[in-house]
Amino acid sequence: MKFFSFYKHRNLFFMISGGLILLGIIALLINGVQLDIQFKGGAILKYSYVGELNSDSVADFVSQKLNRLVSAQETKDLTTGETRVALELSGEYGMSATEQTDLNTALATAFPDNQLTSVETSLVEPFFGKMFLTKGIIAVVLAMLLILVYEWITFRKIGGLSAGVCALAALFHDLLMVFFTCVIARIPIGDTFVAVALSIIGYSINDTIVIFDRVRENHRRLPKESIDVVADLSIRQSMMRSVNTNVAVTLAVGLIYVFAARASLDSIISFALPMLIGSISGCYSTLCLAGPLWVMWQKSKEKKHNAPAPAAA
Most buried of 230, 238, 276, 303, CB within 10 angstroms? Predict the structure, then answer.
């Protein structure tokens, strides 16, 4: 019986990943990166209102009053039907309680028919924002380095360094998919992104470790088989486990996203949507990228080892 070869179809998988990355880069050039309040400092003020309201007019009014760059976005709570406008104030400082009280009074005077009511305020100084961003990046990088060391030691009998590097390549692919999801969906990069990144790293590497463990066992059991046959066999043996796990995660996170979207819970949406895409990408990269990349590395080593020595002059 002829089985599907993940290694022989590696170019197809590389093209799919390359196309998705290219799409993400194009979206990045168009949309740019939006940093959340936790990472850049400033203030986010959310107001509920009634009737019809031009959010741009509100943003212009606040910008003129505070002499700061202000952007506005309208949201709606589908559960309560309450409409809201979120004002994002950029700058090197937040807002004092007195400033916010004065602003609320001014908004009530300028838009009396809309009954603007403050429902949520987020204030972060730029110093803390930069510190949170730096520590978040350090946490992600440190996690990936520890994974490299772990795989290097654990799978040293089948080329531990190659297994670790290929696992990191798959993880980096997953993080890119999560990042590009935030860019395309215009989800600000904040502490939620760091939580998603660390969750995806742990989830994806678990699947990859299972496959490399099967490779190690099959390589010991079938020493005469070529490395690509061993890798394909190991991936097939682990595939249903990875797929079933991913289906369970996708259903759970997907339901969370649907309910969060219906209730306009931005904080939950900013976690659920990237997590949903990241879990799917983690399953894909484990099955279609990590194994074939490792086989390519091993075949390259074998080719160099078997290459004839240069003739003596």
Answer: 230
